[in-house]
Amino acid sequence: MVKEVVDNPVEQQIAPESPVKQILGFLSSMQLGIILLLLLSVITLFATFRPMQLAIEYVYNSWWFLGIMAFAGLNLFLCTVERCGPLYRQALRPKKTMSADAIKKMQINTAIKLTGEPLVKAENAFKRAGLRTVVTATPEGPVLFGEKGKFGYFGSIVTHFSLLLILLAAAYGSLTGFEDTNGGYAGSNFFVPEGRFRVDIADVRMVQEENPVIRPRVYTDMTITRDGRTIAQDTLSINYPIRFEGTTIYHTTFHYLPEITLKDTVTGETEANKFMMGNKINLDDQGTHIQLMEFFPNFSMGRDGRPFSVNYLPERPVTAGILVRDGEREASVFLQLDQPEVIETAAGDVEVLLTGFDVASVYSISKNLGRPYLFIGSVLMTLGLYMSFFLFPSRFWAVYDEGKRTLLIGGRGFRNRIGTEQTLEKIEEEIKTREEK
Amino acid sequence: MFERPPGLIPVSPLGMQVENTLFMLAIIVYLLATISYLVNLSGKKEWGPFASTLLKVAFLVHTAFIVTRTINVQRPPFVGHYEFGNLFIWATALVYIWSEWRLKDKYFAVGAFLTPLAMLYFAYLTVIPSIIPAVYISRSHRPLPPVLQSDWLTIHVFTSVFGYAGFTLAFAAALMWFLKEKVSDRSLLGKTLPQVKLLDEYMYRASAFGFLFQTVMIISGAIWADISWGRYWGWDPKEMWSLITWFVFAVYLHARFTRGWTGMRTVALVAVGWFAMLFTWVGVAWLLSGIHSFG
Ligand code: HEM
Question: Mean pLDDT over residues A265-277, rounded?
Fold first, then answer.
């Protein structure tokens, strides 16, 4: 598992391990981890070719998929715990002495002929190459030991721990949280039963981006209260949600709300209302109505007779609908600002008039208590991977050979042969420049 | 609601011309570098430094293209396949140049495998759409819709191009490993290709580099999704494919530790990981649909 050559050969095991130990050994093995990761890859690969909703319902949220993830979590947990002790010993109890023969057998080694005090020169060169050094006296002579990147040994532990934290935080978040959708316009309010709070929308404003074909940004001023007490108050817009108590309210989209005034041409009575697309505007009690289909802030008609909006500037607002009479679609209706359409109904002629429009914002509301832990887990994972792959632990030993004329240097890298070779090159260069001086 | 294509950012004819010229020029110099690396691989050692210089020139021209594009679109150029593809090739060249500088000329041979991959990515941006009509790569200068105006998105894209760059380098080394194993040591290729041990290490380091960036890419994407859509993970095909890529490279990085999972098996895993990465970028857009298909 670990690339370093083990100094003492493993003792022969005489008695077979107990079944419990064997099971634990299997559950904590990296082989099992690899199999589980491959299994998860293959399952998700097939699932992505299904429609997303079906994949979520029948795969990603199924008991067996979550079960495999939990099993992988258990495997990871056991493996990490088991590796802690050996890694601790490996990282913090290095062997500080080494025989000349052992150094000669190392994959990365060199012999340098030197004059003067070679070990002192080598120690300085080790230091210049970024190694922390110690010299230990042994009966065979002094041994110089240097190492760097010690934290790199713990990279895998930090990474695995962070992954466990992320898995647990995701599970915790989805078990204790909720997701909801709601919306409203200036002056309206709604209640979120799962969170026991009420949302009052003071204002919804549109601000057009410089480019008029880009959807405008919509800002909502809202106040969130519980039992009359304010718990949050802020302005939200796309990419700027409101957060409180582990709950977040996001702006997801907006709709135009045409304000339509109906005027009874006989009595002169008027009635104004705001409508959503898809709503019906009832014109009489016989079922005659206009079904609203679309709103165009800047109306135009294509050559093929299809209506469209030139851009988002509210220069020529028109709302389109279909007049339905006796259950039959009779005609398309285009209501322009302040230009009445007179429609015959059972109750006499009715004047239908677009008198203005408003905007309604749609919010997704979710509570996720796992979020801060997910974030910590993410930071730790980045750190752990950095430690694993960018802090290259390496160790070097130097001893005299053939009296004091030759210096033997040997090195071992943990996961990084090229880097260790480069460190040795650096040490050699340092020693040579010192020798020339 | 709109009939016409969404409005584009007005770009001066000069700006347009500079941009397109630099793009073509970059491709030409990259192609020359590719040829030179291949000549070097065929045993003409003196072509190595020349190829390396050409690649650096290509990289500078490409950088100038990216700067021009940034000025023309008035934002970092990371929207759509054309802009992302260019960033990705640019990052791949940068990471390779850096590795060449770190590892010295022993590794010029890698260039002969890496630059053709970069040319393959260029082909996707240029000639492949004219061969496969279903693939359409738009070069238009589109402004950013509000949902894409986020710092997390910028981090997301920049980490992803470096992740992909690492995986491309790893795949180049995997190809070399495969060839080195197949050809005899006395053949021309056998002599110019580095030892399998070194290639194995190169593949590992490049994968690890890619893996770190791919991880940050997934994390920053999740944070952005959480802020924009109210959920950090939506199980959409693009997210799932980046996770599959991540799983495959995680398996590779672990497999390298375990006995019996060396050699051809690890090389195969890197190749599968590279395919998964390519599918995340190209396949998902044209074969699967989801929130991420902004074009
Ligand atoms: C069920 C799953 C997993 C198991 C059983 C497992 C097991 C192991 C083991 C035994 C090691 C060697 C530890 C050492 O002595 O350094 C290791 C290394 C490592 N693992 Fe995992 N692991 C799993 C999943 C993951 C995942 C998903 C990641 C990615 C985030 C990961 C990241 C790492 C890293 C970065 C290393 C160090 C690798 C290296 O030095 O090349 N592990 N893992």
Answer: 89
β-sheet bridge partners, residue A361:
A184, A254
Residue A28 CB less than 6 A away from ligand 1 = no
> How big is chain B, counted in residues?
295
Token pair for A392? 């290259």
Phi and psi at B119, nearest 5°, equal: -65, -35
Residue A307: exposed, middle, or buried by beta-carbon count in 10 A (0-12, 13-18, 19+)?
middle
- Which atom of ligand 1 is closest in space to residue A86's alpha carbon? 15
- In this prediction the ipTM stands at 0.91
And the tokens for A111? 């012999």
Partners of B233 on chain A (C-beta within 8 Å) are: 170
pLDDT of residue A68: 95
Measuring from atom 13 of ligand 1, which residue has the nearest CA? A156
Q: Does ligand 1 have an atom closer than 6 angstroms to the CB of A74?
A: no
* B186 touching chain A per CB within 8 A: no
**Residue nearest (by alpha carbon) to ligand 1 atom 20:** A156
Residue A416 beta carbon below 6 angstroms from any ligand 1 atom = no
- Going from the Cα of A29 to the center of ligand 1, the distance in angstroms, rounded, reads 11
Grade residue A14 by pLDDT with cuts at 50, 70 and 90. low
The tokens for A330 are 């009779």
Q: Give the pLDDT confidence score for residue B6 in this predicted structure.
A: 59
Contacts of A2 in chain B (CB under 8 A): 257
Q: What does the alpha-carbon distance between residue A121 and residue A113 come to, in Å, rounded to a whole number?
A: 12
The predicted-structure confidence for B120-165, as pLDDT tens digits, reads as follows: 999 999 999 889 888 888 888 888 888 888 899 999 999 999 999 9
Whether residue B235 and residue A52 make contact (CB cut-off 8 A), yes or no, is yes
Mean pLDDT, residues B164-177: 96
What is the per-residue pLDDT for A231? 95
User: What is the rounded distance in angstroms from the CA atom of residue B292 to the CA atom of residue B275?
Assistant: 19
Residue A257 has pLDDT above 90, yes or no: yes
pLDDT digit string (tens) for A100-142? 888 888 888 888 887 777 788 888 888 988 899 998 888 888 8
Distance of alpha carbon A167 from alpha carbon A170, whole angstroms: 5
The one-letter amino acid code at B17 reads: Q
Q: For residue A380, is pLDDT > 60?
A: yes
Q: Decide: helix, strand or coil at residue A66.
A: helix
